[in-house]
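In this supplementary section we document a worked example of the pipeline. Step one takes a protein sequence of length 321 as its only input; no multiple sequence alignment statistics are reported here. Step two produces a three-dimensional model, which step three serialises into structure tokens for compact storage. The input and output of this example are shown verbatim.
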Amino acid sequence: QVSFQVSGGKPIALLRVKVEPQPHVVDQTFRFYHPELTFLKKTIRLPPWHTLPGAPVGMPGGEPEMFVRCSDPDIICETKNMGPGEPQDVFLKVAGGPSPQIKKFFVAIYTDAWLAAPVQIWQFYLHSLQRLDVSCVAGQPPRLSLLLRGTPAPRRVRAFTSHPQELEVDPDGAFLLPANGIQDLYIGVRPRRAGSRFIYLNLVDVESHQLVSSWLLCLSCRQPLVSKAFEISLPAGGGRGCNKRITYTNPYPSPRLYFLCTNRPDLLQFKEDSFQVAGGEMYTIGLRFAPSQGTGEEEILIHINDHEDKNEETFCVKVLY
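The serialised model returned by step three reads:
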């Protein structure tokens, strides 16, 4: 309620003001995935001030100074003017909570010292995940188990991953997580290429769509030892694929079962994904190469794994299109 009074204190008007806060108009959204209970430190470069919508035109004295404010007072958010013509950065330091907490906050950017009207509003999401470091060899999937702890009530849950072609989960469908119980979720990592990268794994309640647990898999994958190398030439621009054959000899005196996989299933398929060969005998592996529309070269790895999915040998086929 707002009262307008004359000098003697007598009210001459009364207003009842109803304030309805409106949602922010968000110009940009940032989403970060970070290990739980650690600090996220991030530096984000501000765009040039004259490119921002609503920026003042023809300012006396050149570039305006830029200011930032965060909606969460517990977050360190600051920026410094580095001088004329220099880029300006926003520094953030955010304390992450326990997994699977998601912290949401806003950062407003101003070009006036009174912080009257923001020229940009950025929205941030910080996903806190349980970190799991995985070291492996390409083509040889390590088997791991994750411990699931039940909530006070039983829930039907399902695991979802950011890389379903490289991360297998068991059970792979919906299953019951008993109340206050403990259960294992088995995962198999099958990276197709060497290097380091992140894989995200979420356990979701399929009925309420709530996040139950989240993991950040920090994958470090090494290149396997190549025992044989081949080089073949294939025509480019054709509409039909090409069939080739290579041989493999079982080095053991007893019969063995082998499984085949490749790092480029989009370019290579096998006539049979598994084969059995007697001790010391030779087996012919049938290869089917997909047609290519352009010229160039590709290196395709063929992994020959045993019955436990451990890598026995790796062949490299260099294809010249």
